[in-house]
Design goal:
single chain; mainly alpha; about 70% helix
Length: about 140
């Protein structure tokens, strides 16, 4: 009887150890998107100009992305997920349309970006490698390649 209880306790501990870090990463990404949204709504034309400068997509693609999101921060995330995953923005748009209620962490996973991976952390980073969200980086001490 005791060994069965111990096995269940170990399994539960392992599951909690796997789930909590993934939830923390998702919350960090949610906070980043929320902050980005505030910035974008405060200066829509500046935000659009920054998107155009950061992501080398044709103007028509940028218009397509912006016309398919209700929140401007989602446009950034769509372009960034495409860039980080190496997949076309149109593919990210298709996945977004079906899964937008599930959040960007889920969409990133659907695009092949694993939680906790360098690619997942890169979703918040611009081309400079510095996070535009929180000032403290969780990858402190690690070198960017």
């Amino acid at each position: 009887m005791k060994s069965g209880f111990m096995l269940k306790a170990v399994i539960l501990a392992v599951l909690v150890g796997l789930i909590l870090p993934a939830m923390a990463l998702a919350n960090d990404l949610t906070d980043f998107v929320r902050n980005l949204s505030v910035e974008a709504k405060a200066d829509p034309s500046g935000f659009r100009a920054r998107l155009r400068a950061q992501f080398p997509v044709p103007g028509g693609t940028l218009d397509l992305v912006l016309s398919n999101v209700t929140d401007p921060a989602d446009a950034y995330m769509m372009l960034r997920v495409g860039e980080v995953s190496g997949q076309p923005v149109e593919r990210v748009l298709d996945v977004y349309k079906v899964n937008k209620g599930r959040g960007w962490g889920y969409i990133a996973r659907q695009m092949g970006i694993k939680p906790g991976s360098a690619e997942f952390h890169a979703l918040k980073d611009g081309p400079s490698g510095k996070s535009k969200g929180k000032s403290k980086s969780k990858s402190k001490g690690k070198k960017n390649k």
